[in-house]
Structure prediction request, 499 residues.
Amino acid sequence: MATLAGAATVAGFAPTGWFPLPVITLALLIALWRNATSAREAAATGFLFGCGFFICGVSWVYVSLHDFGGMPVWLAGLLTLLFCLYLAIYPALTGWAGHLLGLRSPVVTLAAVPALWTLTELLRGWVLTGFPWLAIGYSQVPASPLAGYFPVCGTFGVSLLTVGSAALLCCALSTAPPVAMPKSGALFTRRWLLGAFAVLWACGYALKTVEWVTPVGEPVTVALIQGNISQDQKWREDRMQSTLDSYHDLVATGAARLTVLPETALPLFLHTVPREYLERLATHARKSKGDILLGVPEHQDAGTYYNSVLSIGSAPEQLYRKSHLVPFGEFIPLKPLFAWFLDIAMIPLADFARGDEAQQPLEVAGQKVAVNICYEDAFGTEIARQLPQATLLVNVSNVAWFGHSIAPRQHLQISQARALETGRVMLRSTNTGMTAIIDHRGIVQSVAPEFTTAIVRGEVQGYAGTTPFVRWTDLPVIVTSLLLLACTLFYRLRRARRQ
Prediction:
């Protein structure tokens, strides 16, 4: 039952987006935890939930390892399974620690479970450089009333509230007798629990009407290029010129103040790209008094190279260098131990250097643009580093590595969360999908079909101002979670003394 509940939870995320479903499946998981007879059983239940959740939710890792990385089927399958089993450890930790605190008590269930789940998600987003993909909060983007909390407390704050909603639902539907609260004598009745659930969601709905930011400057015309260069063709020498020609022709089809090309759109190191080619693109941009952002790997002395975005056009040339790299995709952790991975996986440029964490927004097209590359937009606190200075967000990605899977749509949902958290329009230019314009409320305004050559055009507004999340990032959520655990421990110690 735990495994099936975990698998079903994936349907709460993109592309299906049934946002109430994770609340229901997590309520079932909490009920299973409350019925566990030992911490070991609770940990096993959480682990099985995690297995169903992550095997169904992120097994697209197999596509990059086998279909494009060239690994044998058995090895790609084994590594994908081991990765999913590793991720399942985090729900197991929640169940184990929750049982030790005494989950049969509604007080512990309502306070400890949301706190423990949130802290383990934060831990998952940090260990081994972090993998916060499928944090429960993402399931509430953008339609759920809980989405109103994103500008206030961010994705992990919404995770706390989502699991808290599940805990309220579980306790409200529990057959266990009500338990008196210390001193006050108030009871955990079904009416109070469902009332708290309704208030929580009603407040989220009300917060969706709050304008946290204000428009700044004139609207900007944009053109987001989706080149649709297949991953198995992208780095072939005999396709280099056709790729360059394709992007040149796409840029030349129209005029926009800001044109964005995908991650590593130009499959050459920057110093080897013909200067006349870049000048032709820049000349076209200047005709509209605009600029072009294009992804290109950048080589430095001593064999150092970066995954970069270059601006050309009316503004002086500027560079953004990716700072949060993908383990085993863009760098090899513990290289002496995992050198074999490079020998097996056919991944070009698998040893990038990190860009500076304190990079400033690029001043292009009359806007201050916070650029992030692919996987970087999964880290909300890192995106917030360039705010409140930035007026627009731009993500360039190449998720062709994951083929016809649900990964690109999940990634689009993550970008929607970043727009909500920061109160900024997010522009996404991808190689094969999902290229899109997302407004400052996290709503997709326009999107190109996957695996097509396309240009998404539109007019977007820059915004100024600071949301509570940008100001405080995850600190309030961490403090709240720790305080909930402290209150739980105090309650348990007090009950133990009375007994």
